[in-house]
Amino acid sequence: MKKYLVTVLALALGMTVMVGCGSNKEEKNELNVQFVPTNNDGTMEAKAKPFEEYLSEKLGCEVNVTLATDYSTIVEAMSSGQVDIGIMPPAAYVQARNEGSAEAILTSELQDYDLETGRPAEGVMSGTFKGEILVKKDSDIKTLEDLKGKKIATLSPNSASGYIYPVAEMKEAGIDPTKDCTLTTVNDIPSEMISVLNGQLDACFVFEGARYVFKDKFADNDIMDELRVLYYTDGDIPNDAIAVQKDMDSELKDKVKETFLNMAEDERGKDAMSLWGHKGYTDVSETAYDTIDEYTQKAVN
Predict the structure, then answer these.
(1) What does each C-alpha distance from 166 to 118, 152, 213, 287, 288 come to in angstroms?
(2) What Gene3D superfamilies does this protein map onto (predicted)?
(3) 7 pLDDT higher than 50
(4) Please, are residues 181 and 194 in contact by the beta-carbon 8 Å criterion?
(5) Helical H runs in the chain?
(6) pLDDT for 163-222, tens place per residue?
(7) Is 125 exposed, middle or buried (0-12, 13-18, 19+ CB in 10 A)?
(8) Listed residue (123, 122, 70, 75) closest to 100, CA to CA
(9) Percent residues over pLDDT 90 in the chain
(10) DSSP notation for 206-221
């Protein structure tokens, strides 16, 4: 009986090692994952639970998924080691990368959009996107220069499309929005759009295709018609990064990478990716993210 119990215990311990999530420091039994929600209406929390279960099953250990309150908190969470895997907006990833606390293992693929119609370009994926400046359809704002003296909704200063790229390019055009306009930071993109629709603010900074992505949230408005694109950024913004702690065990890192690469192959994986509008993942090119640094310097100087 003693031999039998020892054998069973040994097998159990062996299975624990097999399903555990490793790190260079110690064997971990859980992983912490965080992402920045595209809206803050409370719906994303419920959708995060199936993603948590999906990753737990695929990675063979307990996974905790949390939502960052804004772009800066996910950087802080990576820097402090509280988060092992970050699904990171481009500018947030670059900040964490520059601090030495994150390594991108993949970059996301997004639906490409027809810049004339603002609607999806069917069957076309892209590794980059542009920023948009939206105004009301009947607004007398026709050019970037017309934004001088106007009130503009922005996202966090750490957002590439919601702040950095449009601010940098407005400065290049001779308008400093931090001085010549009134900038108001808003929690999410739907709230930005509402502020323009109701006339509270004159324009907003969003990402390419935002009207189409959020159109179903506006039951009383046809935002594809009521809002128009004043300006697309010249600069292309690299997509979100799947980033991990730099000291993550290489075997676990490969397993995380494989899991994300295979998400597009099953319905549960596709549902998970829909949280951020991702259509798939590809190998990362760090040089693509270097442009974020260049634009950030233009925006802050």
Answers:
(1) 18, 11, 20, 21, 18
(2) Periplasmic binding protein-like II
(3) no
(4) no
(5) 2-19, 43-59, 71-79, 90-98, 165-172, 177-180, 189-197, 210-214, 223-226, 250-261, 267-273, 286-300
(6) 999 999 999 999 999 999 999 999 899 999 999 999 999 999 999 999 999 999 999 999
(7) middle
(8) 75
(9) 79
(10) EETTHHHHHGGG-TT-
pLDDT of residue 226 exceeding 50: yes
CA distances from 156 to 7, 73, 92, 123, 182 (A): 56, 11, 10, 31, 15
User: How is residue 166 written in tokens?
Assistant: 């449009």
Give the three-class secondary structure for 142. coil
- Name residue 10's amino acid: A
What global pTM score does this model have? Answer: 0.86
224: nearest Cα among 208, 212, 209: 212
- Where is 279: in which H helix or E strand? strand 278-282
Q: And the tokens for 211?
A: 């009207």
Structure tokens at 146: 């017309």
Which of helix, strand or coil describes residue 256? Answer: helix
Are the CB atoms for 172 and 298 separated by under 8 Å? yes
Contact 139, 133 (CB under 8 A): no
Rounded CA-CA distance 57/111 in Å is 27
